[in-house]
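INTERNAL AUDIT FORM
Audit reference: QA-55
Scope: verify that the stored structure record matches its stored sequence.
Auditor: D.O.
Record contents follow.
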Amino acid sequence: MVLWQGLVGVAPEPPHYTVAMLILGFESSCDETGVALVAANDGAPPQLLAHALHSQVSMHEAYGGVVPELASRDHIRRVLPLTRQVLAEAGKGRADIDVVAYTRGPGLAGALLVGSAVACALAAALDRPVLGIHHLEGHLLSPFLAADPPQFPFVALLVSGGHTQLMRVDGVGDYALLGETIDDAAGEAFDKSAKLLGLGYPGGPALARLAEFGDPTAYALPRPLLHRDTLDFSFAGLKTAVRTQVMKLGDGVCEQPRADLAASTQAAIVEVLVKKSLAALKATGLRRLVVAGGVGANRSLRTQLDAACAKRGVRVHYPELQLCTDNGAMIALAAAMRLQAGRAVARHDHAFDVQPRWPLAALDGLAP
């Protein structure tokens, strides 16, 4: 059991933990229900004991995208069985839990409310403190659960379905925004291009699979903002160019031109991400890059980043593939690291709210 020094109320100085702490984390921001248990020991990196994840892909596939009401209802069905599964796999009981963490935002409001309500109700029943976590911070810190965790400081490339950002990270809660998308995120560019090509949901992985059979130089697609003196991104123009090419191909086109267009689309997105990341490293003078978020699982992106960074003597870190998508492990981890660093104060009042729109730059280091 944790000695709760500095955890209740506003601590005059950062809290310090003298014994092991078990954190149960809930993630329910969109279409995946994630639960995980992380152990944080004094002076040692947090350790993932068990995690479970249910994806709603098959349910939303018929609609070509996430239906928020269906997502919320499915979270309700899945969260408690997943919690029991995680505790059983870790060999722990509810009484062993020291802190309950949950995704406070950003995300779908109804989906966030499910995880928040369950987390706060469980914490209240156990008389344990609770901590709301920023979804993107979870992704940002997820590589710390990998076999080769990074060290601060580093440049982070956050690439997911709804976010594309470059951050300078000097420590837990110490983030500086270097650049972000001004329109579509990289994940949206993958998904929308896949839809234009008639591929299934989720579009990004489907486009990547088709791209393996295509020629990435077949179509001269735009790389918006690539040659401008900015670390911001723009992918809306690329999507428009893909639509134009699809219209030129017409109906009944054979598979090879579609594969070529998929490969060319992926090549354009990856080139922008790689070159912007290298520019961020050069601008900051840092020699370490962290890639996080669902798009970080893309094989072409990893291959090209690895090659480009190796030439420059830059270390690249990724989360484990199973932790690239939304998951409870990254939420429990972020809670553990925030508490260990004195960047958050868990609370006992168990009231909660959610933040569907919550910029990472607005994250308060001591916010509940």
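Auditor finding: record pair retrieved intact. The radius of gyration is 21 Å.
Action required: none
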